[in-house]
Amino acid sequence: MKLWQKQEHDIDHAIERFTVGRDREFDLALAKYDIQGSLAHAQMLASIGLLEPGELEQLSSLLRELYRRVEQGDFQIEQGVEDIHSQVELLLTRQLGDIGKKIHAGRSRNDQVLVDLRLFFRDEIRSLADGARALFDLLLRLADQHKEVLMPGYTHLQVAMPSSFGLWFSAYAESLIDDLRQLEATYRITNQNPLGSAAGYGSSFPLDRRLTTELLGFDELAYNVVHAQLGRGKTELFLSFALAAFGATLGKLSMDIVLFLNQNFSFISFPDQLTTGSSIMPHKKNPDVFELTRAKCNQLQALPQQVALLTTNLPSGYHRDFQLLKESIFPGIQTLKDCLEMLHYALQHIEVNTDILEDERYRYLFSVEEVNKEVLKGTPFRDAYRKIGERIASGEFEPGLRVAHTHEGSIGNLCLPDIRGKFDKVWRQFDFEKAFAKIEELVRR
Question: 376-403 burial, b for 16+ CB within 10 Å, e for fewer?
Answer without folding.
Answer: eeeeeeeebbeebeeeeeeeebebeeeb
